[in-house]
Amino acid sequence: MKICCIGAGYVGGPTMAMIAAKAPDIEVTVVDMNTVRIAAWNSDQLPVYEPGLDDIVRRTRGKNLFFSTDVTGAIRAADLIFVAVNTPTKTYGVGAGRAADLRFIESVARTIAETATTPKIIIEKSTIPVKTAETIKEILSANGNGTKFQVLSNPEFLAEGTAVADLELPDRVLIGGERTPEGETAARTLADVYARWVPRDRIIMTNLWSSELSKLVANAFLAQRISSINSISALCEATGADVDEVAHAIGRDSRIGPKFLKASVGFGGSCFQKDILNLVYLCEHFGLPEVAAYWESVVKMNDWQKHRFAGRIMKALFNTVADKKIAVLGFAFKKDTNDTRESAAIAVCRDLLAEQARVVVYDPKVSADEIRRDVLGDKASVTGPAQADARLSVAKNAYEAAEGAHALAIATEWDEFKKLDYEKIFAAMTKPAFIFDGRNILDLAQLRKIGFRAHGIGK
Question: Which residue, of 2, 111, 297, 374, is most buried by count of CB atoms within 10 Å of its CB?
Fold first, then answer.
């Protein structure tokens, strides 16, 4: 069997590496038109940082795992074709800011139709709106040369920072196919690949539409829990309750459970906001405005939490941060990843710059260029782009960032931030020295003993 994956991004690369590692008799080729990305996958510096990924790629690359820009050759040779291209939110026209932009999905479908000469199983791996498989099938049928295609939905459920573990021991593998003999045969073929290492009882078979919708709904439910506990964090701060204690108490209820009840400065990443807004758009499209408004409130609460955190910093620093140095520790949207998409740190930095603060950022995995690009990319979000550019800097470590700072803000829960010498940091900061823990990873009582004016989320 030969597998081709179109798209060498966060989903395609790690997923195919795991399949290659678990099924050494299957030849797996990951293709992408981006020559720089493919070169990175073939180098010692992979374009995606995930704990454990380097080792898997090194063990399989060149044996049964290949990265290439030869899209046509890989499609023709493959039995199974995974489609893992980007599906960003539309920035134009109808549905702008909410609907998924499916231009890359359509382009891939047309390329497959024009290239393939033997029967193929096409597998949707990208996060797409329900009924996209229908579009793919129409394009394949209209543009093909009589070649037989079966389209399956196999959404990914990876959490960044734990992607390798999620792939090796998944909660479930979801496969959606048509309820026809050909569709069920195709679904079983894909299930047999995963069954090399995933127990059969964890491989769930559904119809196409249920599978496509399940990905959006799963992310919406997880994000909803975060926004729910974050809304309560504001009430805790107003009343003197401790949000961690509240979360622990309600999490002990077996009907609720403890996961995704960690209050923070807000969720980020490539999936949650994009998928919820896609769900909102779908609900509006199908004439369900009340359902759309319900899910849109999850995103609104998350945005409010980010701005609330920055506002709390300004209020505590005597209602002004103008010309004050604020050190932001962490820029990735969560620890153990270099992904900054929709990171809460972006909003926090922009809000502080808009208030004329001097912002210095440190993150162990995110480059200075990426930080500056993310924060300053939207010039309209800050007052005076040239001045904002001059007031934003990037430090090489946490101690450099804290030197002379009026306040320290924890935006990402990197483990190294728990191990810092905070007495040393306190001595180097402007007094009074403030700490705002946006991830509730520090011992606030101990920090107060050192002399900090320490604040946490929901405390």
Answer: 374
Token pair belonging to 52: 């454990």
**Rounded to the nearest 5°, which phi and psi values hold at 310?**
-65, -40
For the question of residue 283 being annotated catalytic, the response is no
Do residues 334 and 262 touch, judged by C-beta distance below 8 A? Answer: no
Distance CA 67, CA 319 (A): 53
Q: What string of H, E and C letters represents the secondary structure of the chain?
A: CEEEEECCCCCHHHHHHHHHHHCCCCEEEEECCCHHHHHHHCCCCCCCCCCCHHHHHHHHECCCEEEECCHHHHHHHCCEEEECCCCCECCCCCCCCCCECCHHHHHHHHHHHHHCCCCEEEEECCCCCCCHHHHHHHHHHHHCCCCCEEEEECCCCCCCCCHHHHHHCCCCEEEEECCCHHHHHHHHHHHHHHCCCCCHHHEEEEEHHHHHHHHHHHHHHHHHHHHHHHHHHHHHHHHCCCHHHHHHHHHCCCCCCCCCCCCCCCCCCCCHHHHHHHHHHHHHHCCCHHHHHHHHHHHHHHHHHHHHHHHHHHHHCCCCCCCCEEEEECCCCCCCCCCCCCCHHHHHHHHHHHCCCEEEEECCCCCHHHHHHHHHCCHHHCCCHHHHHHHEEECCCHHHHHCCCCEEEECCCCHHHHCCCHHHHHHHCCCCCEEEECCCCCCHHHHHHHCCEEEECCC
Ramachandran angles phi, psi of 114, nearest 5° = -80, -20
- Owner of token pair 């935006």: 411
pLDDT tens profile 28-78: 999 999 999 999 999 999 998 899 999 999 999 999 999 999 999 999 999
pLDDT, tens digit, for every residue of 387-436?
A: 668 899 999 999 999 999 999 999 999 999 999 999 999 999 999 999 99
Please give the residue that has the higher pLDDT: either 169 or 91.
Answer: 169
Cα–Cα nearest to 280, from 270, 272, 289, 269 = 289
pLDDT of residue 383: 45
Active-site annotation holder among 5, 271, 283, 349? 271
144: pLDDT confidence band, cut at 50, 70 and 90? low
| Mean pLDDT comparison of 114-118, 269-273, 343-347, highest-scoring range | 343-347
Interval 352-367 mean pLDDT: 96
